[in-house]
Each structure stands twice: as structure tokens, then as C-alpha cells.
Amino acid sequence: MNTPPATSSPLYRSPDIFASFPELLAAESTRHGGVSPAPFASLNLGLSTADIPENVAENRSRFWRALGVNPHQVATSHQVHGSEILTVTQPGHYSGYDSLITRHKGILLAVTVADCTPVLIFDLRHEAVAAIHAGWRGTVQGIVTKTLEKMQLEFGTDPADCYAYVGTCIDECSFEVGLEVAEQFSDVHQRFDPATGKHLVDLKIANRDQLLGVGVRKDHIQISAYSTVLHNHTYFSYRHEKGQTGRMLVCIGIV
After folding, report:
1. Does domain 12-254 have CATH number 3.60.140.10?
2. CA 252 – CA 122 distance, rounded (Å)
3. Is pTM beyond 0.85 here?
4. Closest-CA residue to 201 (of 219, 220, 184)
5. What does the domain layout of the chain look like in residue ranges?
6. d(CA 201, CA 187)
7. Nearest in space to 204 (alpha carbons), one of 238, 233, 174
8. For the stretch 163-193, what's the b/e string if a residue is b when 16 or more beta carbons lie within 10 angstroms of its beta carbon?
9. Tens-digit pLDDT profile for residues 198-220
10. By CB atoms within 10 Å of each CB, which of 13, 47, 96, 190 scores lowest?
11. Which of 203, 206, 205, 208 has its CA nearest to residue 221?
């Protein structure tokens, strides 16, 4: 990887929580700056959509180029909405994992999202990173907690040394679920809306609380101010766009 640009571009935003670490590259893509037509307009980075593959390839090329990244240094996985964690030692595309961790410099970990919660973690002391795709199922299964426990085991990570970003996802006021889903969350993370007869789940706070629960300091956590639904002009939302939409990539790595 080359040294990334210092500021964000229309293609991505960089979390402020990591701004003090020049060795770290972290970014969350937007839907702007690509070549895909509607309904994937425009920077669709998802390999498993109905978009034309050549468009996705060009979009990915633009995204990595904007970040100063060689795409051959990226590690991704086909995600299954679970809580399996892969310790990455080589870049490439894997399958069956919703969380990736590494201490290897020059490898960029990336997860795909379009409503689910991305969580990025940086262990400052050990220079280790994690990229997590926390869908509601993964959140219920404690994927963030499990990831930090895995980092403790693999790298000696102390959560107090970590900085974390809970990224852009579906917001609480938009994430309507049935009782069968809501009852899997604590009362702190879900509420009943009598006007709609639906329960609402707050994935951002649920994942933030997993970070806090294992010892990440509150002032070391940033929660995205954006929503895939309320800010759908900038981000893809699978639910809001009824499945016909693109995907974002959220990535982190030691340069």
C-alpha cells in the first residue's frame, strides 16, 4: 500500500477516531463516484449483486485507487451473518467469516455492508486491527465481543489499548423487526413502537456496548453519525431500497 490521502474524498469517509494514527488506513465507502447505473448508482462495490461485474470491478478499482491501495493487498470474506473470525496472514478472498483480524502490516481488511453494522478496531500497542460485519444475528451472537477475545488470545490485545469505530448502518428508528428478533436483544437495545406495532432495534448501541463490555474505553469509541436509511443519498440501504441496491466496503489496515 502507498501512503493514503490525508483527507476523505467523495468516494469514502475516514473515521475521526483514527486520525491521530498516520500508520493506520481506515475508510468507509459512500455510494458516490462510481459507474453503476440505477438501482446500483453509483459506487457499488458488492460482488454479489445483480450489477454488471465490469461496473463493480471499475468501482472497486476507483475506490482502492482513491485510498492509494493495491487491491492485491486486500483481505475479504464471503459473509454469512454469523460470528466466525478469521486470523488473516495473507490477502485474498475467503468464505464463511464475518470478522477478520490481523497483525500483518500491508494487509487491508474489508467487510461489505448495506444496513448491517461495520465495526473497525485498532489495537495501538500491538498494531493489530479488526474489521467486523455485525448483522443482527452476528450482534446477538456477540461477534464484537468474540473478536476482541480472539485478539486477546492471538495478539495479547488489551481492550483498554484499542480504538474502535461503529460504522454507518440502519438506524434505530428505521430498523423495524418482529418480536422473534426483538426478544433476542436486551431491553436497552430494543423498544416497542405502539404506532406501528413493531419493535425497533439499535444495532449501533448494541455493538458499542459489546466494546464497552470487554473494556474498550468510551472515549476511544466513535459511532457514525450517518444512517443508511436517513442518508440514503450517500449510502446504500438494502432494506430501504428493497434489496435492489449496491454495497459499501469498510476497511482498515496498517500501512
Report:
1. yes
2. 8
3. yes
4. 184
5. 12-254
6. 9
7. 174
8. bbbbbbbbbbebbbbeeebbebbeeebbeee
9. 999 999 999 999 999 999 999 99
10. 96
11. 208
